[in-house]
Design goal:
- By secondary structure, this protein is mainly β.
- It is elongated and about 50 Å long.
- The termini are far apart.
Length: 122
Amino acid sequence: QVQLDESGGGVVQPGGSLRLSCAASGSIFTVKAMGWYRQSPGNSRELVAITVNGESTRYSSFAKGRFTLSRDTFLRTVHLQMDNLKPEDTAVYYCNAEVIPRGADLESTEYWGQGTQVTVSA
């Protein structure tokens, strides 16, 4: 089984920072893509940032200039550094990964973390 373990959520004041981390573990051959989505009450889940094939990183417009996604391929881990947080960033943040399980015939499977709460409030 593949598992995504998330950490780093919490409560911060506007303008503050948080660093989210997600580590993939289990029977993994390779991780093709890994990143973060978020969802606030009443809204659909939306992309925050994702790195694909270890080559490029895509950011949603609200994340550009404030959030930075980094990946440690060897450790199968991504970090989302979030700076200058705004109340609008309040949401549950979900780690997402496209994984080729060990032993699979190059078939990829998408996995989701349980979600970590980020609250930005004065």
